[in-house]
Amino acid sequence: MDVEAFEEAAVTARREGEPAAYRAALDLYAGELLPADRYEEWAEDRRQQLRRLYLALLVELAGIYEERGENGPAIEALTRVTAEEPAHEEAHAALMRLYALSGSRTEALRQYERLKEALPKELGVRPSASSRALRDEIAWSSFSPEGRRNRVIPLEEPTLKR
């Protein structure tokens, strides 16, 4: 992976705020930096920085799509996040919201179940109160699309499982 090209494309994407620029940057991310040097300490921090940038770009791209009312591409971007980082609670919550906004209550609840399985497995925690509240709103049909579009749900720190 050409690290400099990826980072420059990320800066451009953020400056322009256009999906095409984000997709161009994301296309430059070819996976882990120096996978053959997996246990080289000097590469680990840089590898993690680049991975976080990749995931952040996907989340930002999803937000741009959501603002435009393009739920399908937003869902696709967030699905890539959760595939790469199964315990990414913000992405799971955004997927739940997008599925509910799209009228797919069942898929929104399935997404919560994926989150509920991933967090203890990956981090030993349970979903935050805000994720549980969103799940309850969707489950009890009190979720209202009005006022929900473009609304970022602030997540609390995950509660440690006792």
Walk me through this protein's architecture:
This protein is mainly α and 162 residues long. The protein has two domains: 1-85, no CATH class; 87-162, no CATH class. It has seven helices and two strands, in the order ααααααβαβ. The protein has a two-stranded antiparallel ribbon with strand order 1-2. Helix 2 packs antiparallel against helix 3, helix 4 (71-84) runs antiparallel to helix 5 (89-101) and helix 5 runs antiparallel to helix 6 (105-123). The longest helix has 27 residues, at 41-67. It is flat, with a radius of gyration of 17 Å. Residues 147-162 have low confidence and may be disordered.
Rg, please? Answer: 17 Å
Whole-number tally of structural domains? 2
Spatial strand sequence of the major β-sheet = 1-2
* Low-confidence runs of at least 5 consecutive residues: 147-162
User: Percent of residues in beta strands?
Assistant: under 5%
- Give a short account of the largest sheet: 2 strands, antiparallel
How many helices? The count is 7
Helix content: 55-70%
Mean pLDDT: 85
What is the rounded distance between the termini?
41 Å
Structural category is mainly alpha
Q: Which sequence of SSEs, written as H and E, runs from N to C? A: HHHHHHEHE
What gross morphology would you assign? Answer: flat
The total strand number stands at 2
